[in-house]
From TrEMBL:
GO molecular function: carbon-sulfur lyase activity; metal ion binding
Alphabetized UniProt keyword annotations: Lyase, Metal-binding, Zinc
Originating organism: Trematosphaeria pertusa
UniProt-recorded name of the protein: CENP-V/GFA domain-containing protein
Gene3D superfamilies cross-referenced by the UniProt entry: glutathione-dependent formaldehyde- activating enzyme (gfa)
Pfam families assigned: GFA (PF04828)
Length: 139
């Protein structure tokens, strides 16, 4: 069982089982959400998530089709996960890997998406599938 939470500890979560996949996203929205060069998304079935606390939510149009709901702590503002009802996303939580604390290292990426937006100073991760758009076909 992996556990995670926000910086102040008001919102915590855990999930059972193994993640479906872990993907680095270089899109401009993920940069804004995380405040850094990419997001590391650990995909887990929503049914495996257990939550404590009361996260806040923000809904946005990705500009790529899916509408996402971001969950974050209303006190310390840490982004915790994303969800969407769009095809291929429904029924999953996309945990921001940094929220996993020490469990972060247990989730090596399976792929990188929106690589056309990757910062010029970042190299592709060797041995990981690369996608100009979404991760369709990564399964």
């Amino acid at each position: 069982m992996a556990k995670g939470g926000c910086l102040c500890g008001r919102v915590t979560f855990e999930f059972t089982g193994e993640p479906v996949k872990t993907v680095l996203c270089h899109c401009l929205n993920c940069r804004r959400i995380t405040g850094t060069a990419f997001s590391t998304n650990v995909s887990v079935p929503s049914s495996s998530m257990r939550l404590q606390g009361d996260p806040k939510h923000f809904v946005f149009d990705s500009g790529q089709g899916p509408i996402f709901k971001i969950s974050f702590c209303g006190e310390c503002s840490c982004t915790l996960w994303k969800e969407s009802d769009a095809e291929g996303f429904k029924g999953f939580h996309f945990i921001q890997a940094g929220a996993l604390g020490q469990d972060f290292d247990n989730h090596r990426p399976d792929g990188e998406i929106f690589t056309g937006f990757r910062s010029r100073w970042l190299d592709a991760i060797q041995g990981v599938k690369q996608f100009e758009g979404t991760d369709e076909g990564l399964d």
